[in-house]
Predict the structure of TrkA family potassium uptake protein.
Amino acid sequence: MKMKQFGVIGLGRFGSSLARELTNNGFEVLGVDRDEEAVSEMSEVLTHAIVADSTDEETLRSIGIRNFDCVIVAIGDDIQASIMTAILLKDLGVEMVVAKALSVLHGKVLERLGVDRIIYPERDMGIRVAHQLVNPNLLDYIELSKDYTIAEISAPKCLNGKTLEELNPRAKYGCSVVAINKKDGVIIAPTATDVINERDVMVIIGTNKQIESFEEELVGS
Ligand code: ATP
C-alpha cells in the first residue's frame, strides 16, 4: 500500500506536535510555515519543512500540494490566512483538508468552504479536562453519539478485590464493563467472576447518565 503523505501548514504548538506525531507513526510529512524559526525548529524532525506563505496559490502549486493525501491547516490566530489557505487547498483539489478552528464562527466558515474535517482543539481539550476534573477516576472517554459514551475509569480502592458480580454495574446503573485493563494484561468481555483490583482500568459503555451515576457512586464511596 502507498504510504500516506501529509502536509501540515502552520507549525505552531498544535501543528508541530501533530506533524511530529505523524512522523513518529512512520508517515511522510511536509511542514510549511511562513516563519523561518518555526520551520528550522522542525526541519530535523520532519521529512521536509519549508518556509512559505500558504495564502500564495503559486507556492502551493509548486509544492505539488494536490498530491498529498491529507493537508492540515493548523493556523489559528490569523483567521484570514486560515480561510484563504483552506479555499486554495480545496480549489487545487486536495482530497482531504482538515482545519483547526478557534471559534464556532471560524469553524462554520471553514465548513462552508468544503473543509472535510474541522477540529476545535482548545474547546475540546477544555471540555475533556473539565470532565476529568469533575470525575477524578475518569481517565479518558470517547463519545459514540450525543447520548452514548465509552469511558476508561480507574478502579478506586473501594473496588479492590470485588468481582464484577458484586459490582454489578449493569443491574445497578445500566452500563457494562466491556474490558478490564490490568497490570499483566487486558481482559476482554469480562465475566461475573473476574476480579477488579485497585488501579485496574475499566472500560465502560453506556449512556452518559448511566456512566455518570456509576462514577458518582465510586467517588461517593
Ligand atoms: P498554536 O496554538 O498551535 O501555537 P496559534 O493559533 O497560537 O497556534 P497561529 O498564529 O495560529 O498560532 O499560527 C500557527 C503557525 O502558523 C505560526 O507558526 C505561523 O507562523 C503560521 N502561519 C500563519 N499564517 C501562515 C501562512 N499564511 N502561511 C504559512 N504559515 C502561517
